[in-house]
């Protein structure tokens, strides 16, 4: 029996990168997955691919910054699969821009997706989990929720916010059996990292390589499953040693 047998998991950013790798691992552990993403083409194709492997998988196009769409996604999930046990709250965007040239609209857009969107999905998760007696939420922050870096002020501020949002929600709902933890990846080889930056980012990492999305998925599985049953409010940094420097 899989570690997530018959659990229902919503995965935001599930069409690509870390979210997609986690969906693959979750279905291999017996979960039913709901892929949530803005990218309809990739999301639909990936859900079909998982169904072809006999997995229960659906795609729901959702913008995580839209309250109504987020609420509808949870409603549709419950209508389809009956409940929500796990939410991997992972969708995000990131751009590098010198701060003195950063337009306020760009700052707002980054914080809107990377912090506000994470809150909206977490709030809906908690509303649903309170009805059914609990669940687990894994928010994707970043090692840049812990350390700074030049040129990513909005992203880093939002990710630092996710780290403390995680602690705060964990404390607020610990007695209701809702565990809330965060994944803090280092540089991971996904489409969010521009091709031309990969070499330099590998060199900046003590292990001298980028992480793989599958290596993040294993950490997410740990936090989402009973393997971490006494862990809440934590942020797991998985970064090839970057923040140990
Ligand atoms: N790859 C890295 O190096 C790295 C490092 C630290 C943290 N992260 C975080 O990991 C998470 C996943 O990123 P990834 O590396 O897999 O990148 P990715 O670009 O492959 O995946 C992100 C997904 O989120 C979706 N998305 C973006 N905005 C959305 C919105 N408003 N609503 C719904 N979906 C939206 C995108 O369409 C995309 O499919 C992000 O939160 C990112 O900040 C990534």
Automatic annotation (TrEMBL):
Keywords: Oxidoreductase
The keyword Oxidoreductase appears for this protein: yes
KW rRNA processing (keyword) present: no
EC annotation from Swiss-Prot or TrEMBL: 1.1.1.385
Pfam entry (one): adh_short_C2
Domain of life of the source: Bacteria
A molecular-function term among this protein's GO annotations: oxidoreductase activity
Entries under NCBIfam families matching the protein: PRK07231.1 (NF005559)
Record family assignment: Belongs to the short-chain dehydrogenases/reductases (SDR) family.
Protein name: Dihydroanticapsin 7-dehydrogenase
């Amino acid at each position: 029996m899989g570690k997530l047998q018959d659990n229902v998991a919503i995965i935001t950013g599930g069409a690509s990168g870390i979210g997609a790798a986690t969906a693959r691992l979750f279905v291999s552990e017996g979960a039913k997955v709901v892929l949530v993403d803005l990218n309809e083409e990739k999301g639909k194709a990936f859900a079909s691919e998982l169904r072809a492997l006999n997995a229960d998988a659906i795609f729901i196009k959702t913008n995580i910054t839209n309250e109504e769409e987020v609420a509808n996604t949870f409603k549709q999930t419950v209508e389809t699969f009956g409940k929500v046990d796990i939410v991997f709250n992972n969708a995000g965007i990131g751009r590098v821009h010198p701060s003195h040239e950063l337009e306020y609209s760009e700052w707002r857009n980054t914080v809107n997706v990377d912090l506000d969107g994470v809150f909206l999905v977490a709030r809906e998760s908690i509303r649903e989990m309170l009805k059914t007696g609990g669940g687990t939420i894994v928010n994707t922050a970043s090692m840049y929720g812990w350390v700074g870096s030049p040129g990513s002020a909005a992203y880093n501020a939002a990710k630092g916010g996710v780290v403390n949002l995680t602690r705060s929600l964990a404390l607020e709902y610990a007695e209701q059996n809702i565990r809330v933890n965060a994944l803090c990846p280092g540089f991971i080889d996904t489409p969010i990292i521009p091709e031309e930056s990969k070499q330099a980012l590998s060199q900046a990492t003590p292990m001298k390589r980028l992480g793989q999305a599958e290596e993040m998925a294993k950490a997410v599985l740990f936090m989402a499953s009973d393997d971490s049953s006494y862990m809440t409010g934590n942020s797991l940094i998985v970064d090839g040693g970057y923040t140990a420097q």
